[in-house]
Amino acid sequence: LKMSWFWLYLPLHLLMATSLCHSIKAPTTSSQQSFKTDLFNFYHSLILADGKETTIHLLKDIPRRYYFVLEEGRVLTPFSITVTPCDVPIEWSILVYKSPPGKATPGDHDTQEVSKSQKAPGMVSTIFNYKGNSVETYMGMSSHSALYLLEFLSTERDTHITVYLTTDTTSGHLYPELPTDPRIDVIGIGHTTVTLTWKHSPSVLQHRESIQYCLLVNEKHNYKSLCAAETAIRSSGMKLPPTLALSLSPYLLEPQQVMILSNSELSIINKVSSGEVRQVCMGTKNTYTVPNLSPSTQYYFDVFIVNLLTNASAAYTGTFARTLEEPEPKVTELKDGKVIHVLLDGKKQKFYSLQYQARHKKIHFTFQLCRGQVRVHITRNGKTVASENLSGLRYLSLKGKLLDTYLVQLRSTEESNSSVKVQASPHFHKPLFPLLPESLKIKSFSKLRTCRSVTIAWLGTQEESKYCVYRKRIEEDQIWRELQSADRCSGPESRHKSEKVLCKYFYDLNLQRAVTTETIKGLEAGTFYLFDVYLFGPSGIPVRYHSKVVKTRKKC
C-alpha cells in the first residue's frame, strides 16, 4: 500500500461511506450493519499494509477490523490475503463495498460528480468467511473503486494472528512453497527412534542458501503453523528464542532449555510439563531420524519450511507415530553370598536388573558404590519395598516370606558411567564387607607437615582389621581428575608396588579411642601426594577410604 495515494483516496472513502448509508435499506444483515457502522468510523481503524506480514492481537469477543484499497489507475488488480492463527480457532471474513459503474473514481474531484456519487447506490457484500485454526489464503481480483474490510474475531480467549496482504503476484512469495503432496511419511520406527521423510519444497531448489527445514517433536498434538507451536510452548512457561531457531545464531537459553549443535543440525529441547518439545533445524535434508525417544510413547511430528531472510514459514501436514515397546530387560540371577560387579552406562540411562529368590524370611542386601551416582529400586513380588540413591556402603535388611521374588534395578543418575557391587545373603552374621567406622575420611595435620613428611589419621572399629596405606605423587592439575575418577571398589591390586607405604592391624573396644595416626616419611619438598587407606575385613574384600591430597612444605 502506498500512503501517497491513500490520502487521495480518503475523500472517496468518506463519499463511499455516505453513499452506503443512503443506499442500504433496513432490514440489513448483521455483517452489513457492522460494515456500515464501521465505515462511519473508519478513520479510527488501521489500513492493512501491502506486501508486509502484520501481527494482530485479538481480545476475546472484541472484533478487529482492517481496511485496504488498491492502486489508482488499474481496472482489475489480483490480490491475496493469508491469515495464520497462532493459537485458538478464530473467525474472519472479507467484506467489499463497490461503487456503481461510471461513478466517482479517485481522479474525479468535480463537485457535481461527487454529489452524484453520494446519491448513487453502492453494493456491500461478504466475499469470504472462515472459522478455524488452519492457515487460509484468499485470492481474488479487485477493481479500483472497491473498498475492502477484514474483520477478525476470537471467541475463546485472547490470542494473536498474522495477516499478509499482497498485490504483487509476479515477484515471488513471502512464504516458502509447499510441494503438491505436503505430507510427512514415517518410514521407520524403533524403540527410541522414528525416521521421517517428506517431499522437497520447490523453494529449496530455487533458494537453497536461504531456506531450511525445521522439525518440531512433542507428545501433545500437531501444530498447523510455526507461530502456533511457539505460542503453545510459551504458554507452558517457556521463553522461546525468536521464531524457532530460524538461524544457527546462538541464543541465550532458559534453564529448562538445552541447545545441541552437531553435524550442522541445531536442536533445542524444552522441558515442559507435558513432556519434551524438541526443535531440530537440519538445513535442506528431507529425511531425518529422531533419536533418544522414549519407548512405547506417541509422538507428533511437524515439519516447517523456513525462509531465513524473511522469517516466514509454511507447514507440512503433520503426522504422528508410536515408538515400539521396550523389550524386557535381561535379568541376572543373584545367588546367596555371591558378589556381582555391575557397570552402568550413564548415557543410555537404562536399568540393570538382578533377581533373587528368597530361601529365608529375612534377606540382607549390600551395595558398595564404586564410581559415579547410582539409584537402586527393589520390588518384592512386584511391589516396591525400597528406592533410594546409593552412597558409599549401604546395607538393606528386608523381611518377607519364603520363596519371595526380589527384583533389584540399578541405573546411573548421571551421564558418566557408574559402577556398583551388589550382594544378597540371608546370613548377616557373615557380612561380605568389614565393619566400618563412623567416617571414611582421612585427616591430615597441617602443623605436623614438613618438607619431607606428612602425618595422617583415620578412624578404626571395635573389630581387629587390617589397614594398608598407599601414596602417589601427582601434579596440581591432576588433583580434580584423580579424585573424580577414583574407583572406590578397587583394591590394592590395582596399585603399583612402589606406592605401598605400610600395612598394620589395630582396633579399640572404646570407639572414642579407635583412631590411629601414621607419619609418612621420605617425601619431596613442595610436592602434592595422594594418600589412600584400604580396610580389609574377614572376607578379604577391601573398603577404600576417601582419598586425601596433601602438599609437603616448600621450606623448612
UniProtKB/TrEMBL annotation:
A single cellular component GO annotation: extracellular region
InterPro entries in UniProt: FN3_dom (IPR003961), FN3_sf (IPR036116), Ig-like_fold (IPR013783), NDNF (IPR019326), NDNF_C (IPR045805), NDNF_Fn(III)_1 (IPR055271), NDNF_N (IPR056225)
Domain Fibronectin type-III intervals: 176-313, 434-542
Main location: secreted
Gene Ontology BP term (one): nervous system development
Subcellular location as annotated: Secreted
Signal peptide range in chain numbering: 1-23
Example of a GO MF term: heparin binding
Pfam families: NDNF, NDNF_C, NDNF_N
Keywords: Glycoprotein, Neurogenesis, Repeat, Secreted, Signal
Role, per record: Secretory protein that plays a role in various cellular processes. Acts as a chemorepellent acting on gonadotropin-releasing hormone (GnRH) expressing neurons regulating their migration to the hypothalamus. Also promotes neuron migration, growth and survival as well as neurite outgrowth and is involved in the development of the olfactory system. May also act through the regulation of growth factors activity and downstream signaling. Also regulates extracellular matrix assembly and cell adhesiveness.
PANTHER family from the UniProt entry: NEURON-DERIVED NEUROTROPHIC FACTOR, PROTEIN NDNF
Descriptive protein name: Protein NDNF
Organism, as annotated: Mohoua ochrocephala
Name of the encoding gene: Ndnf_1
